[in-house]
Design brief:
Helices cover 45% and strands 17% of the residues. The protein has 253 residues and is an alpha/beta fold. It has one domain: Metal-dependent hydrolases (TIM Barrel). The strands form two sheets. Strands 1-2-3-4-5-6-7-8 form an eight-stranded parallel β-sheet. Strands 9-10 form a two-stranded antiparallel sheet. Helix 7 links the parallel strand 5 and strand 6.
Length: 253
């Protein structure tokens, strides 16, 4: 059976969390090997750790504070730091980043930056991988990576939909890119598998986000592989196996 990965799913949200046993059983049956459970605040980070302890063979925890929530959750950074010291199995920080597209209140941007800087500092000390939200702030993220000791290969750019110029800069930094169901209709997102090296491609659902009315979930990763195969003109089998290998490389396992 082919094996699939979802490197970005919001398992702590009630949609998944309240029925996680049923979902895990269903996803196992279709060959899902790993899910990275991303978190948006301290409460979700606790849930992510709980889920990863319950399903250690499939759920990989990622803890963080989403840029949309930075202005409300910045006081949680000390709690997040405590979790990092207590739970050595955590290897990914996310979902973190900057957003100047959906967030229009400029007074929130310095708080986003402060939260992002905290996570970069933790990654510089402990070699964490970063799951990055970059919407409308792509150049700022590039600048932050370039001024950091963190290599671009430790960063995964989640659902990129920026310009070709910015995409090339991120490719040159050796970043990974997670592609999702939006490949079906987003021409900007379609640039990623077309232009990025196949060795830097990963798959994600961003569940439970909706795609043209369809709820995203890890079970859609087979469909994402097919979309990537169609866009790259590479076989489904090779894309699937390469994505799995890329994930191992990303985590250095």
């Amino acid at each position: 059976m082919s094996q699939y990965i979802d490197v970005h799913c919001h398992l702590p949200e009630n949609y998944f969390y309240n029925s996680i046993d049923t979902y895990i059983k269903r996803w196992n049956q279709i060959g899902l090997k790993y899910i990275v459970s991303v978190s948006q605040n301290y409460r979700e980070s606790l849930r992510t750790i709980e889920l990863s302890q319950k399903y250690p063979k499939i759920i990989i925890p990622a803890i963080g504070i989403h840029p949309w929530k930075a202005h409300k959750k910045i006081e949680e950074l000390s709690l997040i730091k405590g979790l990092l010291s207590q739970h050595k199995q955590i290897r990914i920080l996310g979902e973190i980043g900057l957003d100047k597209h959906f967030i229009k209140q400029r007074e929130r941007y310095p708080l986003q930056q402060k939260v992002l800087d905290f996570f970069f500092e933790q990654a510089e000390k402990q070699d964490y991988r970063l799951m990055l939200h970059v919407k409308g702030a792509e150049q700022e993220i590039i600048d932050r990576i370039e001024t950091s000791s963190i290599p671009g290969s430790h960063c995964c750019i989640h659902w990129f939909s920026g310009t070709e110029e910015i995409l090339q800069q991120l490719i040159d930094l050796d970043c990974y890119f997670s592609c999702g169901p939006a490949l079906k209709y987003s021409t900007k997102h379609q640039q990623v598998p077309k232009k990025a090296p196949i060795a830097r491609l990963l798959t994600e659902s961003d569940g439970n986000v909706k795609y043209q009315g369809i709820v995203g979930h890890p079970g859609l990763m087979r469909d994402v592989i097919k979309l990537m195969a169609d866009l790259t003109k590479i076989s489904n089998k090779k894309i699937q196996q390469t994505v799995l290998n890329n994930f191992y490389q990303f985590l250095n396992t």
